Amino acid sequence: MKPEQARDAIPHADPFAIFEEWFAQARASEPNDPNAMALATATPQGVPSVRMVLLKGHGPAGFVFYTNFHSRKGGELAANPHVALLFHWKSLRRQIRVEGTITEVTAAEADAYFASRHPESRLGSAASDQSRPLDSRQTYLDRVDALRAQYPDGEVTRPAHWSGYRVKPATIEFWQDRDHRLHERRRFVTDGAGGWTSTLLYP
Description:
This protein is of the alpha+beta class. It has six helices and nine strands, in the order H-H-E-E-E-E-H-E-E-H-H-H-E-E-E. It has a single domain, classed as Electron Transport, Fmn-binding Protein, Chain A (Pnp Oxidase, Chain A). The protein is elongated. The protein starts with a helix and ends with a strand.
């Protein structure tokens, strides 16, 4: 065993500090969308679904993303608040898994983020009945055009059904690729009082 392979690449420390360090490195190394994360949801019956979303805020309070509450994931989140996230950064050969529950962000937070988006993105969100059947792409584009005519500056009001969620983690697991699949994993579990315990896991 090489000495460098025996050293822990993932220490027992504040998991949010480790996330911040890894995320900063991903922003410098990933070719695009370093804030992309897989979001897994499930129905009350336990039927899962997963899709990619973008991380739009993070810190000790949790991980924030935005969506249409009328979408499939919005419906599943309304019925079952338990979710899982996965960050996978191929350039760093790392991944982070998060499991926890969601709460809605405040209206002020949602308004501020919606206003920060590109005008075309705001129009697209307001025109979309996300996850519902669409007879043709042209129908959607026509709805965007109609809103653009109504709001030529793109300053459309945030729809009430478009907002965000904050994932409050119960567990955070860091995974570091190693040669010959001798990978390193460390799992952090919240103690419910602001602290964390952790343990290494067999790869």
